[in-house]
Amino acid sequence: MQLSEPVYRIAVLSMHTCPRGKTGSRDTGGMNVYIREISLQLGEMGHRVDIFTRDSGTAVKAVQPLGKNVRLVHIKAGPKKELPKEELNTYVERFSSEIEGFRRLHNLNYDLVFSNYWLSGLVGEYLQDWWEAAHVLMYHTLGEVKNRVCLKEQEPLIRLYSEKSLLEKCHLVLLPSWREKENFLEYFDPEAHHKVRVVPCGVDLESFRPMEKERAKKMLNLKASPLVLYVGRLEPVKGLERLIEALKYFPPQKRPSLIILGEGNENSTYSEELKEKCKELSLENYVHFRGRIEHENTPYYYNAADVTVVSSYYESFGMVVLEALSCGTPVVSTDVGDVRRIIKQGKTGFVLDKASAREMAQKLHLMISREEKLSPAAIRQTVASFHWQNISRALLREFNQAVKINEDMKGVSQD
Question: pTM value?
Fold first, then answer.
């Protein structure tokens, strides 16, 4: 780091989910990976990062080192168990007060608060006022958009109200794609464009890299060919029912096997509905639910697969696309998040226009049977710029802006 660059102490807020949570299970996914990777990169740059999350009973120690200059701090607020997000809202003030208690106990001063998701944003409002610190908010997803595209599972009114009200006080809003910025300005306030910055998500190029396909399949005890892969939570917004339906459009002798990685909400019937759909379509022998796996093991599955599929009705970005392409595996995706900027149409995959099960099957067939194929190394090269190090530098530039805005505002109020 250059000597002229400021060094910050940053409070990263992740109230409802722990960055060390099990990716692919309830309330854990890309956001957990994002917070963990960004924090580690900022720590490597010399910044001091404390990630605050609610203690849901899984923490062995209240304060755990995550990497150079990075700590994970579990805060007591409410019962030590998993709680619905709507219920967590009642513990926002308590969570905020406990963070302030931690700050006082250790005599710390934070330059910036980085809130992730609307619940953390509410906490960030308290800390912004108490500490007179810069406040940067990342929504990760927008409740209004989820409600529009997925009628089967609606977000609560408290989330919709909170996401709009949070805009007023924070210094900057981060969004992971230009499409999400369009959504944000449409549902919130077009005049707020000056507060909004677009910084994409990233990928760990060291962990997600090509390997010999047969070796990967052997390690996972997979023999089927061709092989299609889905990675993510099992919830209605992910559109898995149309991915399963797509398989029925293949002749049985050419039908690929589908591996589904991830878990559903324990209170949801969606997983069972998907399995029932497999039975209805006589696809039980082609669809394999492998449940949640450790995130570090997903590169083996990406490499074993012939194609990775994103079937979602809504994604704010689409980190699975980056991970698959980084492993050299093509992707067929619905038109969500930033996929049109990432996937090279017909070369590294396809972005669907209509997102019907039939179109999905057609594009899967084209990817699987194509004669002229880019090498895994060439596919990987198309996403090399999304290395977390580059993303963290872009994020830090926005942090600098937020700190400057905050200092200017404090100067005006003192005058």
Answer: 0.93
